[in-house]
Specification:
CATH architecture: Beta Barrel
Strand content: over 45%
Oligomer: single chain
Number of domains: 1
Order of helices and strands: HEEEEEEEEHEEEEEEEE
Shape: elongated
Number of strands: 16
């Protein structure tokens, strides 16, 4: 457990120190893996379909000067096979990325002050999520999902993507001009279940982006990382969650609901 905490601290410090560079990455950076509910092994339901809604509020770029707001809707399927869980599904999202002008007072792009290109820019996307867990049953119907894998792929479109594609190397040291954002990570989760049937738990996720980004000034490349911490509560067909994400050049807070279709 101490090694895990040291690793979380190391990645968090790395993420904060990474903010010394001017960087424009995808608005989905570090936030593409919100919580996906899965029935407990002790539940009578072994397979379930969920609809989910997520609100994301975050900051990005140097000193986290840019603001991000997004809303996402999704549908996913979860299955339990003995001591093994599996989930997979798709989503659509939209939001606003506010490009701050505070760090560009003296810079120009295409012969005009960069401030002319600042402001709120719409973005949208669609994508896929999936993952699995290996679990150990706990007393009273709870479980420890000892180790798991999670992955995501998100395709972006909109004004903010067009803005990044138009940026020259002299404006920002790090720019991701790709429309696709992919991640893969490892997870661990523990869930307690009350006699009433309600359940609450905590999930830790640590992962890396699949899009390598290049610093045009120092000429090094890196893969963005993220750490997510999630608290969730389930009663009947509803699972509510609260999630904090820290990543390279970004941080965000997410809250949402997973609603299980079918009978209680």
């Amino acid at each position: 457990m101490k090694k895990i905490l040291y690793l979380i601290l190391l990645i968090a410090v790395y993420s904060l120190n990474s903010c010394v560079e001017q960087a424009y990455l995808s608005p989905f950076n570090a936030n593409t893996n919100p919580y996906h509910a899965i029935p407990l092994q002790s539940d009578s339901v072994k397979g379930a379909t969920y609809i989910n809604g997520v609100v994301t509020v975050g900051s990005a770029n140097q000193d986290w000067a840019d603001n991000v707001f997004a809303f996402r809707m999704g549908l996913h399927r979860s299955n339990t096979f003995g001591n093994f869980h599996l989930y997979y599904g798709g989503n659509v999202s939209g939001g606003i990325y506010n490009v701050s002008s505070s760090n560009f007072d003296e810079l120009t792009m295409n012969g005009a002050p960069i401030n002319q290109y600042s402001g709120s820019k719409f973005f949208g996307g669609y994508g896929f999520n999936g993952g699995f867990n290996v679990l150990v049953p706990l007393s009273n119907g709870g479980e420890w999902r000892v180790i798991g894998m999670e992955g995501s792929a998100q395709n972006e479109f909109g004004e903010y993507l067009n803005f990044r594609k138009s940026i020259s190397d002299s404006i920002a040291s790090i720019v991701n001009k790709n429309s696709w954002t992919g991640t893969v990570g490892v997870t661990s989760e523990i869930i307690a279940k009350r006699r009433s049937g309600a359940a609450f738990g905590y999930k830790l996720g640590i992962g890396v982006g699949l899009n390598t980004i290049r610093n045009y000034y120092s000429h090094y490349t890196e893969s963005p990382v993220y750490v997510s911490n999630t608290l969730h509560f389930t009663k009947d067909n509803i699972t509510a969650f609260w999630q904090i994400n820290l990543g390279s050049y970004a941080g965000s807070f997410q809250m949402g609901i997973n609603y299980r279709l079918g009978k209680k």
